[in-house]
Amino acid sequence: MRQYCVFSFLVMLTLSACTFGVPIGNQAQQRDLVAKKTTPSERGNPSSYVVFGKRYHVLDSYEGFRQRGVASWYGTKFHGRPTSSGEIYNMHAMTAAHKTLPIPVYVHVKNLDNGRSTVVRVNDRGPFIEGRIIDLSYAAAKKLGVNGPGTANVEISTLRAGESKPVRVARSIPLTDEADFNLPLYIQMGSFSDPLNANNLVQDLIEANESSARVSRLQTNQGLYYRVRVGPLFDIDEANAIVRRLKTKGFQVARIVVADATE
Based on the domain organization, do 66 and 143 belong to the same domain? Predict the structure, then answer.
């Protein structure tokens, strides 16, 4: 009887070595997501929207988007509720929210405070707190070590289908991070003395699926000018991404400008 008990114990020990070393239920979480081909959400991608009195312009393309800022996370309060895309929020899935990226999109997130990184699928809008650029699900925050402190400095980069890590690209417009963010940024497309020319440019932009351009008037000592601009924007990387996109569509004079203090 004693020999049988010893044998049974050895069998159990052998089996435990096969199953208890790495929890089976967590094996999928050990691997980062790989970006998949996505279909834009009809509900989640308006050309622009307003939250707390501030207008946000949704990007037409995520190509080459890179941004640095503060990440936060959201959990049980929103678990089971619809996201901006219409999907149900699951705090245990590797997802996130962003204010202006087209959704859904896969994003590589690197915690600059501890070096950890992972990939999330952006399917929601937010966070709408000044200075924060991405809201992580509880699962993503835990993997990145953000759930403890609540926030962290991060760099996010969009991924193409099949990628799990970002490909470095050169920034097309040199603009330092020390710019005065008390004043918004604009993408200036042109300035004309004849309003007809300004309206024609806006029409060209609309035909190129760029519907967020507006005409503003500027009185100078030389006369009245009509400026065609996209904005306001409050993030350098977002502005650079828009400039790159516009130039691929043939609008080569697109450039970033800082708003006048009177605007």
Answer: yes
